[in-house]
Structure formats: C-alpha cells, structure tokens
Amino acid sequence: MKKYLSMLLVGVTALVAVSAAQAGAIDDAVKRGTLKVGMDPTYMPFEMTNKRGEIIGFEVDILKAMAKAMGVKLEMVSTGYDGIIPALMTDKFDMIGSGMTLTQERNLRLNFSEPFIVVGQTLLIRKDLEGTIKSYKDLNTDDYRITSKLGTTGEMVAKKLISKAKYHGYDNEQEAVLDVVNGKADAFIYDAPYNVVAVSKVGAGKLVFLDKPFTYEPLAFGLKKGDYDSINFINNFLHQIHEDGTYDRIHDKWFKDTAWLKDME
C-alpha cells in the first residue's frame, strides 16, 4: 500500500510539473503583464510603420483590444517574416500576429486560432499588359517574370501555380511592387487587402490591379503546438468582438476609411 501511495504521489507530482511547464502563452502574458506579439510591420493595412515610427494597422488594433481584455500591455516585437516561426519557437514572443495565412503546412508546426479575416492572392500587373494578362494562368510561361515577398503565401502560390514563370522574391512588399513599377517584373502576387492600397500608394499610375482573388486564405494568430488554453481564450475573444461591434468598428477604420493613409510616409 505504501509503495502504491508513493508511486501515486510521484505520478501526481510529475503531472503538476508537466502542467506547470505547459502553462500557455496567454497565462504567461497575464502573469508578466505584457502580451508579446511577433510581427513583420510591412503588410498594409494589417501591420505597418507610420511616419512617426509607430506600428499601426487592422491586426494591431485587434491585438490592442485583446491585450486590454487580458488586462495587460501589448508589446509588438518586429521580426522578419521568414524567421518569425523559429523566433516563436525560441520564445522571442508569445504568439504570431503578422497577417499569417493558416496553411496545412504551417499547421503541422503551429496551433492556430480561428481566422479573424479571409483574404486571397491577387495580381498587380504592368499597365501595358492590361488585356493580355487576365488571370494568373496567363502568366504561367517563361515569357514572364513574377515577384512577391519571400516567405509568404504569395511566394508559395507563385511557385506552385505559376511555376513556369521566372520568379524573384524580395524581403519586403514595396521592393517587389517597385520591381513591377520599374518594368523589371511583369506581376506582383499578394493578398488583396495589400494590393488594393499598393496600386495607388506605390503604383505611380503604372500598375493594374486584377482584384479577383484566386486562392482562399484565412488569416489567424499562431501559437506553439499544444497551447490549447491560449487558443480557447483567443477564439472566445474573437467571438466576443464580432458580436459586440468591436470588430466591425476596427475593420471599417482600416478597410472603408482611408484617413490612415495620410499618416504613412
């Protein structure tokens, strides 16, 4: 009996230790008083840097509302997109909030919240190709050179669906768009919300926006595998803001109102 009780006590102690070790990112943030979120602030209008050096945007405002609901401060950790998953794995921040598409490949490495918005890939093409290029399928030949931001679903889609075209990626969106503006590339592949802004802000009248999305891409918050308590909190938070009007207010600020463009460089 003593041996059984001793083994039981060891088992309970181990279970408590495992539970403590697996404390979720949200619990850790509450204890710390700060929610640390990794993001690459170059994705208009989700997360971007204004002319005063502040990180602003649609997703930023959702995260601010989340931090307020938790009773903590929000700390945004600027991180290159191609290294953002490894940075999460090495505890540089609590979660990823960087316009990340929930793909099956990424889902093998991360847990994801429910999507907070659904977007799709679209095209910005050189103006002189208007009428010639009507969809991504028309670009799928080695006669064309295409571009996107490295590490994004734009790159994945380019290499999967437009694999015959010549591809060159860039570390940020604006460099890639300017490649098309300057005639060095024929098309830029990226999410619709970014392209609808970039065609006027960066396009200089030299681009045409083919606005019909040709992929289905839910954007969500990414956390370490196994962190189900944090996923539970985030999903319930998203449900709440959808029902109480907070989400619509934030969405309209960034997607229906263009006043924020005056704050950009």
Report on the structure:
The strands form five sheets. This protein has a five-stranded mixed beta sheet. It has a three-stranded parallel beta sheet with strand order 5-1-6. Strands 2-3-4 form a three-stranded antiparallel beta sheet. The protein has two domains: about 25-120 and about 215-265, D-Maltodextrin-Binding Protein, domain 2 (3-Layer(aba) Sandwich); about 120-210, Periplasmic binding protein-like II (D-Maltodextrin-Binding Protein, domain 2, 3-Layer(aba) Sandwich), CATH 3.40.190.10. The model is unreliable at about 1-20 (pLDDT under 50). By secondary structure, it is an alpha/beta fold. Helix 3 packs antiparallel against helix 10. The chain has ten helices and 15 strands. The protein is globular and about 55 Å long. Helices cover about 40% and strands about 20% of the residues.
Labels describing this entry:
five-stranded mixed β-sheet, Iontro_rcpt_C, three-stranded parallel β-sheet, 10 helices, D-Maltodextrin-Binding Protein, domain 2, Transporter substrate-binding domain-containing protein, disordered N terminus, 22% strand, alpha/beta, signal, 265 residues
